[in-house]
Amino acid sequence: MIGKIIFWNIRSVNTQKSFERLINLNKRYHYVFLALMEPFQDPSELDHFRRKLGFDTVGVNCSGKILYFWRSEWEGINILDTVQQVTIRFKIDNKFFLISAVYARCNALERLELWAELESITDRDRWPWIIGGYFNVILNE
C-alpha cells in the first residue's frame, strides 16, 4: 500500500501559520510523502522542517520551488530534477512507482517544456505514476 500523500502550494512556509497547520495535518493523517510548492525557504532550513514534520528524508528541486519529504519505509531515488518539477522513483516491497511534484511556470510556452519533460519519463519508465502540484493554468490562454 502506498499510504497518504499531499501536495500543497504553501506560498511560504512561515506565513499565515501554515507550518503549524501542516504539522497538525501530518499528525492527523500520517503522510508518507509531502511536497510543498513555493516554500520560500533557505535550503539551510530544510533539516529543521524535516525534523519538525517527522520525516526521514527531505529534498529540494534545482529551482528551490519544490520541497519534498518522505518516510523511511519508502526507498527513493531522484530520477529527474528540473526547474518545474522533480520526479522520484520509489520502491516498496519490491514494487516501483513514481511521484512527480510540479510547480509549473505561468507562461504557456514554458509549460510546454514541463510536458516534454514528463513525456520523456513515460518513454522510459512504465511504473504507476502520481503527478501533483501547482500547474499555474490560466484559463484565457
Explain what the structure shows.
This protein starts with a strand and ends in a 7-residue tail after the last strand. The chain has one domain: Deoxyribonuclease I, Chain A. The mean pLDDT is 90. It has a four-stranded mixed beta sheet, with helices on one face. A hairpin with a 2-residue loop joins strand 6 and strand 7. The chain has helices at 18-29, 46-53, 108-124, and strands at 5-9, 33-37, 57-60, 66-70, 75-81, 85-92, 95-103, 129-134. With 141 residues, it is of the alpha/beta class. This is Endonuclease/exonuclease/phosphatase domain-containing protein. It comes from Solanum pinnatisectum.
Fold blueprint:
Layout (H helix, E strand, L loop, with lengths): L4 E5 L8 H12 L3 E5 L8 H8 L3 E4 L5 E5 L4 E7 L3 E8 L2 E9 L4 H17 L4 E6 L7
Parallel strand pairs: 1-2, 7-8
Antiparallel strand pairs: 2-4, 3-4, 5-6, 6-7
